[in-house]
């Protein structure tokens, strides 16, 4: 028996097979029964291969531009210095209330003029219960992380 395989271009990311635009070889039954009905892949023709290559080049260019933009934003945030928050504190140094991601986002956007919008999901906060300095990480992309210093002072 012949081991017949068909070349397929993935239209979406498929776990254990590859990412979108990847050229893979699969058996005809897998293509016919799984990939095509779920719109996860298409049979690779020369025109389709060329089309996906162009799309990949465009997406790589956009990704590089976005990475440069994120690096500039990281440098801008890290060069600012300390962000200061004033809170009422108790006798043992614990402040009242809670500092949320929304508070920190408002503080950052009011102090630094950013060219990119940040959201709460990009912030990683340490547990802040007492007066002092804390380092907050802002995840701009998977490989660009900005670290800013926040100091909590008594009112």
UniProtKB/TrEMBL annotation:
GO biological process entries: translation
Name of one Pfam family that matches: Ribosomal_L9_C
Keyword entries, A-Z: Plastid, Ribonucleoprotein, Ribosomal protein, RNA-binding, rRNA-binding
Keyword Chloroplast: no
Transmembrane domains' residue ranges: none
GO molecular function: rRNA binding; structural constituent of ribosome
Domain of life: Eukaryota
PROSITE patterns, sorted: RIBOSOMAL_L9
GO cellular component entries: ribonucleoprotein complex; ribosome
RNA-binding among keywords: yes
Domain Ribosomal protein L9: 18-45
Family of the protein in this entry: Belongs to the bacterial ribosomal protein bL9 family.
HAMAP family: Ribosomal_bL9
Name recorded for this polypeptide: 50S ribosomal protein L9, chloroplastic
Species, as recorded: Pseudochorda nagaii
């Amino acid at each position: 028996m012949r081991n017949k395989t068909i070349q397929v271009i993935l239209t979406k990311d498929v776990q254990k097979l590859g990412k979108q635009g990847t050229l893979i070889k699969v058996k005809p039954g897998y293509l016919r029964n799984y990939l095509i009905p779920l719109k996860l892949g298409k049979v690779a023709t020369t025109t389709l291969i060329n089309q996906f290559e162009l799309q990949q080049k465009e997406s790589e260019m956009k990704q590089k531009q976005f990475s440069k933009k994120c690096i500039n934003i990281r440098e801008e945030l890290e060069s600012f210095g300390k962000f200061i928050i004033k809170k009422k504190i108790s006798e043992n140094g614990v402040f009242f209330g809670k500092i949320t991601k929304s508070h920190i986002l408002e503080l950052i956007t009011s102090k630094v003029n950013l060219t990119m919008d940040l959201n709460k999901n990009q912030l990683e906060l340490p547990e802040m219960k007492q007066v002092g300095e804390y380092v907050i990480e802002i995840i701009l992309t998977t490989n660009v992380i900005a670290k800013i210093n926040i100091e909590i002072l008594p009112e």
